Amino acid sequence: MRSYLLPFLLIAIAVGLIIQTACAPIYVPPKVQAPLLSNAGEVHAAASMDLARHGFDAQAAWSPYNHFGLYGDFSIATHDSSLPNTETHLRHAYGEGAIGWYTRIDDGTRVELLGGMGFGTTATIWYPQQPTLFLYGPPNLQTDTQLYVARGTYLRYFVQGNWGTTRSVPDTVNTLSESGFALRAGWLQFIHLSDSTGNDAPRGTVFFEPAMFIRAGSRTVQIEVMGGSSLIFSQYRYDGSTIFLQFGIHIMFGRGM
């Protein structure tokens, strides 16, 4: 399975990089949820930073019953240094919830299938060196020092599959590593979206987000790295980023090895 997913993921990330060099959606992808639940009573918590966008994610997952999980995520970004103009900022806040099914194929391999929805607000803002006019609202040359390129609120519906392996480090008792892949897809529905052309209308689009992750540490606390790409199939494009790279900490309790 890994031999099929890895080339596909690398191709998707490459496509995302090409899109990013030209134009990209205002939508900000949150971190992919991939705790790899294993048994009832298991609890996971994670916190990470997006190295590309200076954003932060906090996640939690809990399995109240065998093969059934509850998932939650909150994501925030306040500055995007990867944009072409260093005076441009990307503000973003998003929260989501999901339910899922999981199983263990063997002692080390785990599979998760989940679906959920979330709500977010987002804005691309340009800070000029000289006071300028707002694109929205009454002009005021003395107080208006930022310009909204685009801003909006949206709902996000998604389904996702996770596959990963867990291995104990040889000759140790309390050390393990996990790695895997995730494929997330869904529908992004902007409830409100305004841009520099004055458009203000609901817009919907399909998104596809492959990712890969690796984490290592003790059986309770692990360091985690996750990278992936966000592909938006829409004619509406705005300054933003399609690549995400997350680095953080992952904590878990109650796992039966």
Can you describe this structure?
This protein has 257 residues and is mainly beta. The protein has one helix at 2-22; strands at 43-50, 55-65, 68-77, 88-104, 109-126, 147-168, 175-195, 203-218, 221-229, 231-233, 243-253. The chain has a ten-stranded antiparallel beta barrel with strand order 1-2-3-4-5-6-7-8-9-11. A hairpin with a 4-residue loop joins strand 4 and strand 5. 36% of the residues are buried.
CA radius of gyration is: 20 Å
What is the count of DSSP helices, taking H or I runs of 4+ residues?
1
Give helix % range: under 10%
Mean pLDDT over the full residue set: 77
Shape: elongated
Q: How large is the share of residues in beta strands?
A: over 45%
The secondary-structure class comes to mainly beta
Features:
single chain; 257 residues; mainly beta; 10-stranded antiparallel β-barrel; 1 helix; 57% strand; elongated; disordered N terminus
Brief sketch in words of this structure:
The protein contains 1 helix and 11 strands. The protein is mainly beta and about 260 residues long.
